[in-house]
Design brief:
This protein has about 190 residues and is of the alpha/beta class. The chain is built from 9 helices and 7 strands, in the order αβαααβααββαβαβαβ.
């Protein structure tokens, strides 16, 4: 399902005025219809077959952007939520992408700081405030990064759904210390209004 006209590649007006920390933002699908149903089935009932199919179907686009010199970092999930759901959706997505592209993934390098309310319950402005200090590189990121630095030419912060972009923005901002281009990728993106 191709992206509608309002979601075609290129910076939006807001990004032109105030550039984001990431170099590139990529969403594989629009979050509606069958894609939305597949993602909800995965997130709410742990049925991943349809989402795995979506990832496989997007393989040409994924391989165009991610190669063996890319590092995938899932957006960290609060531990309480991970324990409750028994899975980390962004980490699962990173695993599937890494398996397909041969790139590196690390789900310890980028960390969540504290417990924040669920983003889905908040307005756009509240989402930004909620996540302003929610992410940081792990305390031991120096040695961990030194082991990876010679192999990595770019980093991709990965999440399942991009809504306002706040989560990926602040996760990308926290990753800038790595000193390589930071990009963000979501499985799906909600449609822009206006």
């Amino acid at each position: 399902m191709p992206l509608p006209a309002e979601m075609q590649p290129g910076p939006c007006g807001r990004c032109l005025l105030k550039p984001p920390p990431q170099c590139h933002t990529c969403s594989l699908y629009c979050y509606h219809g069958a894609v939305r149903d597949a993602i909800l089935e995965w997130k709410l009932h742990a049925h991943d077959a349809a989402v795995r199919w979506l990832v496989d179907a997007a393989a040409p686009t994924i391989r165009e952007k991610i190669d063996e010199h890319s590092l995938l970092l899932p957006v960290p999930m609060p531990l309480s939520r991970m324990r409750k759901h028994g899975q980390h959706h962004a980490a699962n997505l990173c695993k599937w992408l890494a398996d397909d592209t041969g790139c590196i993934r690390d789900w310890h390098l980028l960390r969540r700081i504290g417990e924040q309310p669920r983003q889905s319950t908040l307005s756009g402005q509240a989402r930004r405030k909620n996540l302003r200090k929610a992410f940081a590189l792990a305390d031991d990121y120096g040695p961990r990064w030194q082991d990876l630095a010679d192999q990595v030419t770019s980093v991709w912060i990965v999440d399942d759904i991009l809504t306002t972009g706040s989560t990926l923005h602040f996760a990308a901002r926290a990753s800038l210390k790595l000193g390589v281009p930071i990009n963000v990728l979501s499985l799906a993106r909600t449609s822009l209004k206006g």
